Amino acid sequence: MEAVLSILVGLFFTAGIYLMLSKAIVRILLGVVVFGNAVNLLIFTAGRIMREVPPVMSLDMTQLTGDTANPLPQALILTAIVISFSFFSFLLVLTFRTYQEVGTDDTVKLRVAEPEGKILPPMGY
Amino acid sequence: MAGPIDITGAMITTPTPAGDWLAVVPVALPIITGAALLMLRKRLHWQAPIAVATLAVVFLATLALLVRVWTFGTVVMTMGRWLPPFGISFTVDLLGALFACTASLVALVCSVAAVQSVARPARRYGYFPFLLLTAVGVNGAFLTGDIFNLYVWFEVFLISSFGLLVVGSTRAQLDGTLKYGVLNLIGTTLFLIATGYLYGIFGTLNMADVIRKVPAVEGAPLMTLATLYLAAFSMKAAAFPVQAWLPASYHTPNVVTSAFFGGVLTKIGVYALLRVLVLLFPLQLAGLSGVIGWVAAATMVLGALGALAQSDIRRMVGFLVISGVGVMLAGLAVGTGPALAGGIFYAMHSMIALTALYLLAGLVAERAGSSSLHVVAGLSSAPVLIIAAFILMLSIAGLPPGSGLWPKIMVVQAALEAQHGWLTAAVLLSSLLTVITLGRFFLFVFWRPPVADGLGERPKRLMSPGPMLALTFLAVVMGLYPEPFVRAASHAADGLLQPDAYVRAVFGEQG
């Protein structure tokens, strides 16, 4: 199971990075989402995948017997999902507003803050 | 239930000493008032006073924390009474306290400057709550002793900084924030990958616990881990070649926002590099030293060259921020005690001097009605600005009596002792380029007679130079009386190189 998920994580990373290399911002954002989910899956895989034994102890036990799934990575992923989802929503709205104002979502043409030409300072006075 | 359960093995049973509560004040207080200000959104005249008062209290708290750490050693407070490593520990050593104190001072000064310069619409859309919440994330990052918690604080200050950057929504701001947002999000995602692997290898996220477990781990890909952290934090610190987001965005928002970001945010990346590479992975740092050295040299020299090629004065300062990060990384690359101390001192100097320079650029642009070096000229009637600009130029270039002199000497001396001659050459070359850049800025802005097409329109009410002067004064103090700062930075560097005290503070004597 771990092997399958590891390969899946690799595929996710590949797809995410490929999308991020695009010039269109919407594609870059989709790439960021896939990239973020690859990380979530990676942490999930690192936390041992087994659902037969719950990580719960009875009162007379002081430590778990045998391997169980580690609940902490799942808590980490929950945090990461919430954060990356809110970032994604914000960046989507920001992209839309930028498209409304500037009229393009092509990163090559998006040069309002860094206009081309006339950036060199005067040579003297 | 069969009787009470013995909890002493898992939980802290003694109450936290009153003084240790100081560790959470710089985070807890602004998060509460920040939320309150969001609710009081409609009461515009309440926003600024509450924000300034909060940040003043936060600064005093970090100052008290610094004094406490200096006197009694590392302060630890573990959340939820769980024994470390199960609860999240706020672990404040001298390094964290120094950075938090300097950053809080900068935040306070910026909030005072914002009272005058932030326009009404920006206040309506929550400028001051965003400022407070950014300060929360910044302080949290400096004070926490848990690496996943560090990631969370990174995200906290990142998302609040989006708000500060974009509020006002001009075309340039939207463009800059988009690039800043996407590239920084990728940087923190790299940080998260590294943290996932770290948990997979060590089974713990508490930094003191990781220090204890590093020697016992064999055959683990620690070098990969250290390299991932280096890539992630270099992106936050705007080191070459992952610096492109900084000059694309920092000149677009209100100048106070630029000042706060330019002063504080990149130093969090440097802080995280020091914390993770020196404290957790010293052996891997030694292996990466060559790479970091090249990155540092390229950052310093290319940053200064970039500044030299800008006609927009705020973009020029942005490139100087990048150049300064290179000096701190040079300290990290050399890696000896004095070099790290130089890097830490330089970070403190840089927070103060670059914030002041951004504010000065704002004052100059406001008086001239433009921020282009083609237009700004003939400001010879503002003696206060001229003196401050001269002092800041000396400070940032590293000439006496400015604050940049001593940390640069420390880094250069340590690099020479460690046989890193070319790194020394890079520091000196970047200093020379900085002198030329700022000297030309000074010449054009203050000495050149007004140019033919005249100055732009001046606003009716000018920003007060007070906050900028306060920081400039501090830069002079740091330059003329560097002794306490050098001592503090040296102790902080020693604390990083000998982590026993850090571990003992978290786990008690048996650690």
Automatic annotation (TrEMBL), chain A:
The alphabetized UniProt keywords are: Cell membrane, Membrane, Transmembrane, Transmembrane helix
Q: What kind of membrane protein is this, topologically? A: Multi-pass membrane protein
| Keyword Ribonucleoprotein found | no
One Pfam short name? Oxidored_q2
Q: Where in the cell is it found?
A: Cell membrane
Transmembrane parts of this sequence: 6-21, 28-51, 71-94
Q: Gene3D superfamilies attached here?
A: 1.10.287.3510
Query: Where this protein primarily resides, as one coarse class?
Result: membrane
Family per record? Belongs to the CPA3 antiporters (TC 2.A.63) subunit C family.
Q: What is this protein called?
A: Na+/H+ antiporter subunit C
To which species is this protein native?
Tianweitania aestuarii
